[in-house]
Design brief:
The chain is built from eleven helices and 16 strands. The protein is α+β, with helices and mostly antiparallel strands. A seven-stranded mixed beta sheet has the order 7-8-9-4-10-11-16, with helices on both faces. Strands 1, 2, 3, 5 and 6 form a five-stranded antiparallel beta sheet that branches. A four-stranded antiparallel beta sheet has the order 13-14-12-15, covered by helices on one side. Strand 1 and strand 2 form a beta hairpin. Helix 3 packs across helix 4 and helix 4 packs across helix 5 (135-147). Bound molecules: adenosine-5'-triphosphate. Adenosine-5'-triphosphate is lined by residues 15, 18, 20, 38, 40-46, 191.
């Protein structure tokens, strides 16, 4: 297995007495599109600033490309392109001229401008002043600026924030293309799982400075599946409980005449019904509730006090 492109070890940060990060262990695999998720104020931008050396950790370490950031700052940053919050653009200049300013500062070849304009699909609008650009176009120009030096790693803070559905779709296609056709590893933050779940390969969920989940999207989907339930209405609650427990079912709650039972798939309803009826329980209601990814995300970030945990890579972290 190749070493992660970004890894942090027990990364800790506070603004004065306000604790922001409490021992963050991120692992971003090479070649991934890693969605760094968390509600507003969770500490995502702070983490990104720490990854780019714009803030100094109170404790812990940052490694990029397998090298310690503190010792290899300049060569590391040459391999990274970043966009933090809204890109800083000269609004009276055209998109092309904004790129030209940055190109000169970086001492790059002139042809790179047309290359990045083509990648972000802004050739048609390259000569229009940026003040006439939509938010989605500004975001794409911000990505073009980050791409100028042809970095291996892109770090993007909320690239879909404020975009309408078509802007989100365009951004999704662009990020996938950058990943699959141009070989970029992409680390992006968002506070909305729904905006990025179709784009990312990996997810890290941050809440109150702690990583609640880190792993492949499919693992999060598996968590959602295993969190699905059947609600059963019965005439004899005690007998129903006994039968279900004896057959290995997990009962989440039971009150009045209703039981909530954890299931892997909808098809288990028929089996469970048969089991109860044959056991002498009359079933008057049976309904299935699948948990969506969004519900899993919300359940991991809901407002409740949780004990700090040390993150394990690619595993579900207990709240
Ligand atoms: N310069 C600062 N001084 C003091 N507190 C700050 C500073 N910058 C951010 N914070 C606080 O740190 C916490 C984390 O902020 P951060 O911007 O990292 O969160 P975030 O997850 O990126 O949120 P959002 O999605 O709203 O941008 C918030 O409570 C914020 O108010």
């Amino acid at each position: 297995m190749t070493a992660p492109l970004i890894s942090t070890h027990q990364l800790t940060y506070h603004y004065g007495s306000l604790q922001i990060l409490q021992g963050l262990n991120l692992e971003v695999p090479k070649g991934s599109i890693y969605g760094f998720l968390g509600p507003n104020g969770a500490g995502k931008t702070t983490t990104i600033r720490l990854l780019l050396g714009l803030l100094k950790p109170a404790a812990g370490t940052v490694e990029l490309f397998g090298q310690a950031f503190v010792r290899h700052r300049v060569p590391i940053l040459q391999r990274v392109g970043a966009m933090i919050e809204t890109p800083s653009l000269y609004r009276h200049l055209s998109g092309k001229d904004n790129l030209e300013v940055a190109r000169r500062m970086l001492g790059l070849e002139k042809k790179r401008i047309n290359q990045v304009l083509e990648i972000v699909r802004l050739q048609q609008d390259a000569h229009r002043p940026v003040k006439h650009y939509s938010l989605g176009m500004c975001q794409r120009l911000g990505i073009a600026l980050a791409l100028l030096s042809d970095p291996e790693l892109l770090i993007l803070d909320e690239p879909t924030n404020g975009l309408d559905p078509s802007g989100i779709r365009e951004m999704r296609e662009l990020l996938k293309e950058l990943n699959q056709e141009h070989g970029k590893t992409i680390f992006l933050s968002s506070h909305l799982l729904s905006e990025i779940e179709k784009t990312v390969t990996h997810v890290g969920i941050l809440d109150k400075g702690l990583l609640r989940f880190q792993g492949r999207v499919e693992q999060l989907q598996q968590t959602a599946l295993s969190a699905s339930t059947l609600e059963v209405e019965v005439d004899n609650l005690l007998l129903a409980r006994e039968l279900l427990l004896a057959n290995g079912y997990q009962i989440i709650s039971s009150k009045k005449q209703r039981l909530r039972v954890a299931v892997q798939e909808k098809e288990e309803a028929a089996h469970l019904n048969q089991l109860l009826v044959l056991g002498g329980v009359s079933v008057s209601g049976l309904s299935y509730a699948a948990q969506s990814l969004e519900e899993v995300f919300l359940s991991l970030t809901e407002p409740q006090v949780a004990e700090p945990v040390n993150s394990l890579s690619f595993s579900i972290l207990p709240a």
